[in-house]
Give the backbone structure.
Amino acid sequence: MASSTEENYLKALYNLSNGQGEVNISDLANGLKVSMPTANSMVKSLQKSDWVIYEKYKPVILTPKGQKEAALIVRKHRLTEMFLVKKMGFGWEEVHEVAEQIEHIHAPKFFERMDEMLGHPTIDPHGSPIPDNQGRMQEFSYTPLSSCKPNQTVQLTALTNSSTEFLEFLNSRKLSLGVHLKVISREAYDQSIVVSYPDHPMETLSEKVSERLLVRVLE
Amino acid sequence: MASSTEENYLKALYNLSNGQGEVNISDLANGLKVSMPTANSMVKSLQKSDWVIYEKYKPVILTPKGQKEAALIVRKHRLTEMFLVKKMGFGWEEVHEVAEQIEHIHAPKFFERMDEMLGHPTIDPHGSPIPDNQGRMQEFSYTPLSSCKPNQTVQLTALTNSSTEFLEFLNSRKLSLGVHLKVISREAYDQSIVVSYPDHPMETLSEKVSERLLVRVLE
DNA sequence: CAAATTTGTTAGAATGATCTAACTTATTAC
DNA sequence: GTAATAAGTTAGATCATTCTAACAAATTTG
């Protein structure tokens, strides 16, 4: 059984391996805020337990076993976030820290019960998909708002970043998942985007914000 | 801040210090299932952080700071058990292990929210008192069923042991908190007690069981 | 392509939590 | 009140996780 520390490494590898499924030691160290030698030695030990494939000077790759383990931790994290929001009245900006801790609880029934009580949700409060209990995660292909064209109408469906600060920014603009946005214009100079949505006839969103907002194009 | 391990030592000291407030190293080691040298060295380090008072060859005593910290951990444990039973549909025999893990979560709002949702409960599912958010615990003076006399009518109000096995035994006899028991007789030979209660006109309880059942005498 | 930079590795040390073996102090029993 | 037993301590080792310093490999840049 993986320790909490090992679980955090697996989760980081899972979240950092987009596409190739390969993760550099430096990215891993960065993501976990540990030194490179620390990440390096931990990766070696994860390899001994068959969680990852690793060769000197090569990027790290999760084994299928490692992928599944990681996905199940992500599942616990996201189910927890959903539970905190839907069943305990927390705001979406408050749940990340707690979920980071609860995801390491070993108690299958506890999470199964959450899942049932929530009606087997497939996305978390930030629109991220929840892997199923086999560790399979459904792929969504959302578009970042930053690449939308004027006159498009889109629905806000997920976020690529769920930091407290970003979520508080969205709260301040009354932007929540599901909102329909009309793209008014796009500023070539700084890539900022002007949108309109209920009660907000004109809101300017910086590139930094708009590339973190994932939308479904409606028309 | 105390580590999870330190928290477990504080909790053990709290639970083991009845009356004098003094705990032997061997009892502590036993309670935590670690060796005596381990308990000894941990106690020394707890002393450095002012959680306990300790002198060579003397029993360990929690400082006021240590007592409060321990009580707050017990609070988190018992609130969690209550939440699992009342809000998530778990049986009272299933909650201990999970609560042992969740009690180490650092998230005041999470436990405050549980407390609110439960209507500020004062006892947990096993009848044990829940310390308040200042770490103060109300004292109850319950009588063990083992010291009751024939013909007394009593109400089952708490347990001195909450092991899964014991709770499953109680389930099998349909014994739950609140049940009214009439003491029929007591066997001088083995100290077993015969009681009657709704749907159970005659049930024999061994001394081992009856001394773990805490009751309030009704008449 | 050689120099500079970034990335990755090894070595060695520190900390927290644990153990066993050996020894000492305290308590209990006769 | 000594001898036996129990309780407590010290010393020394191990394991997981982390670090810094120093070095090596790979990549980028002029």
The CA atoms of residues 194 and 204 of chain B lie 4 Å apart. The mean pLDDT of chain B is 95.
